[in-house]
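Entry, Tuesday afternoon. Goal for today is a structural model of the target with adenosine-5'-triphosphate bound, before we commit to ordering more compound. Inputs were pasted exactly as handed over by J.K., no edits. I checked the ligand SMILES twice against the vendor sheet because last time a stereocentre got dropped in transcription.
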Amino acid sequence: MHPLELSGVSKYFAGKAVIDDLSLSFSEGRVTALVGASGCGKSTVLKLCNGLLQPDVGVVRAFGEPLNYQNLGETRRRMGYAVQGTGLFPHMTAANNIAIGAKASGWSQQDIAVRIAELRTLMHLDEELLERYPHELSGGQQQRVGLSRAMMLRPRILLLDEPFAAIDPITRFDIHRQLQELLAVEPVTVLLVTHDMREAMFLAQQIVVMANGKIRVNEATDELHKQQPGLEPEALLNSLMATP
Ligand SMILES: Nc1ncnc2c1ncn2[C@@H]1O[C@H](COP(=O)(O)OP(=O)(O)OP(=O)(O)O)[C@@H](O)[C@H]1O
């Protein structure tokens, strides 16, 4: 059983199929990167996965069950979600931002403190930073807080929509390594939407290239390395996009 699966899914906007009869499953404990040109439907797939959008045709299953759009709360608690720009609440400290889902789920203060300490270590966040408000943190620190919030409830699925796009390349590389460390300690099924093929090749074990709402390539990262050894990530993406 795959933790997350789309079967024959189509989504129309203004009568046009933005997602076109797409079937895709995400393997347990693996990172799958969704790449492709702007507007090809990557974010729409992610929103279909967490129920923010409903398919017009087809089924989305999480944890083996079709999404229940009348009651998404329980499913969403088992899915972490982090987006570009972090979506942190500006009037709450970093610690309170991270803890928000746990408080809503009735966790004790003690359990919250233990979990925040774990995440703080894994994401290399100094304790002092957690008492600051988002505007008092750098972009990279905010993004680490956003990832910590997404991982707070120990989700089995993590949905990441361009979470590192606004961060400078050096900080981005640091956060990539920290996320990799975190996933080694706490394996999660990850769907990563990104424009950055280098990021995709570094973080993901599976690469899905989309074009016009369809899947063009769905291949293990190792296989791609073997098929086109030595090719720079961007050149590899261009060659995959040109695949008929
Ligand atoms: N709510 C909406 N109403 C109408 N059209 C939409 C809506 N959401 C997305 N679209 C259209 O659907 C297409 C796919 O959008 P989507 O955001 O999934 O693309 P993307 O691959 O994530 O793009 P980008 O890489 O630029 O973020 C685009 O043409 C977009 O304009």
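The mean pLDDT is 90.
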